[in-house]
Design brief:
Length: about 170
């Protein structure tokens, strides 16, 4: 899969084991102190799938086969007439018997298995602000979506969710 938008330069993956997600609480800005999936910048001449596979390995030490990755769409951020960028979002389901003890401190932050209900709770202020909008759909819908977040003065004022059709 090739990137379709020049400003979508990142990948994000949610690693699912049973009713838990492996989440990373980052130690560096811009998402310092926030629980999120794992991922990062797509390197030059790297496919999106290879990028997310590499990022998972670098950030967790877990090797995910390409066949375990499911492309779930993209998230983009906008304010007025400016497109700030975005990320391609994936889901990786690992075997229920995967032994991966947490919490585990890495160079990126702290990894920990979190119950899905905790991650998507509307009372949870410790996850990325966009996650409650797209993660329940990502986990519960087979379709691929484009999640567009519109900001005004650093506050989400509108979210547009459209089914994405792959060509």
């Amino acid at each position: 899969m090739k990137g379709t938008w020049d400003f979508v330069k990142y990948t994000l993956c949610f690693i699912k084991r049973n009713d838990e997600l492996l989440m990373l609480n980052r130690i560096n800005a811009p998402t310092m102190g926030i629980w999120n999936g794992v991922g990062g910048k797509i390197e030059k001449d790297e496919t999106i799938e290879r990028s997310v596979q590499r990022e998972i390995s670098e950030e967790t030490g877990i090797h995910i086969e390409l066949s375990q990755l499911t492309y779930k769409g993209k998230v983009t951020w906008h304010e007025a007439d400016v497109d700030f960028g975005g990320m391609y979002v994936f889901l990786a389901e690992v075997p229920s018997d995967l032994q991966y003890d947490t919490p585990f401190k890495t160079n990126e932050g702290i990894l920990d298995w979190k119950k899905i209900d905790w991650v998507v709770s509307d009372k949870n202020q410790g996850v990325g602000e966009c996650i409650p909008y797209f993660l329940p759909i990502l986990l519960g819908d087979e379709r691929i979506h484009h999640y567009s977040f519109y900001y005004k003065e650093k506050t989400v004022v509108n979210v547009v969710i459209e089914e994405e059709v792959l060509i």
